[in-house]
Specification:
This protein is α+β, with helices and mostly antiparallel strands and 69 residues long. Helices cover 59% and strands 16% of the residues. It contains three helices and two strands; from the N terminus they run E-H-E-H-H. The protein has helices spanning 12-18, 27-50, 59-68; strands at 4-9, 22-26. Strands 1-2 form a two-stranded antiparallel sheet. The longest helix is centred in the middle third of the chain and has 24 residues, at 27-50. It is elongated.
């Protein structure tokens, strides 16, 4: 597996704002983010399937809190 998925140069206004001219997207971080998103979507789908009367409007908020804390 390649450590860097891709890199790109930032536009001038962002380069001046952040002080960097090149941004790198790493494979490991992208894999973690995609896996977490899939896990949250799968959990919401299974909960909706198993528990018919439950309010699921805050599922993404609770998943975000779980990951941050």
């Amino acid at each position: 597996m390649y450590p860097e998925l891709f890199d790109f140069s930032l536009p001038d206004f962002l380069a001046n704002l952040f002080g960097v001219h090149k941004a790198v997207v790493y494979t490991y971080t992208t894999s973690i983010a995609v896996g977490t998103l899939i896990a949250v979507i799968y959990t919401k789908w299974r909960t909706k399937k198993e528990l018919n009367g439950l309010d699921l409007s805050n599922t993404f908020f609770y998943a975000f809190l779980l990951l941050v804390l």
